Amino acid sequence: MDFDWNNPPFEMGNPLTQKDVEESFEDPFAIKLLPDSERFAVQSRHLNLGMSASGLGVFSVYRTNGRQVRVILARGLVPEERFFYQRKMEQTLSS
Q1: Handedness of CA 92, 46, 40, 78 (dihedral sign)
Q2: For residue range 66-82, what is the model confidence (pLDDT) as tens digits?
Q3: Alpha-carbon dihedral angle through residues 3, 17, 74, 95, given to the nearest 10 degrees
Q4: Is 5 within 8 Å of 74 (Cβ atoms)?
Q5: For residue 60, which of 8, 42, 7, 89 has the smallest C-alpha distance?
Q6: What is the mean predicted confidence (pLDDT) over 13-40?
């Protein structure tokens, strides 16, 4: 997966790094969602909840053309998102 990091529209917060964001997309349990809101549909934005190799939970809003990913926003997971991620991971593992 190729990422476009030229002039990102947000600042990375401490301790979040570009590497953490990229690793969260490679997480085998990452949850990728396409919101059904008209606001997001116009510009085809997607959501990703995943974990970095160091165990940092990352929430990302991104768009893609199928070859390249442009991250619009990235931040750490809040407790509710972490719970959702854990529940989905457990469901996948128990299947």
Answers
A1: positive
A2: 889 999 999 999 999 99
A3: 80
A4: no
A5: 8
A6: 86
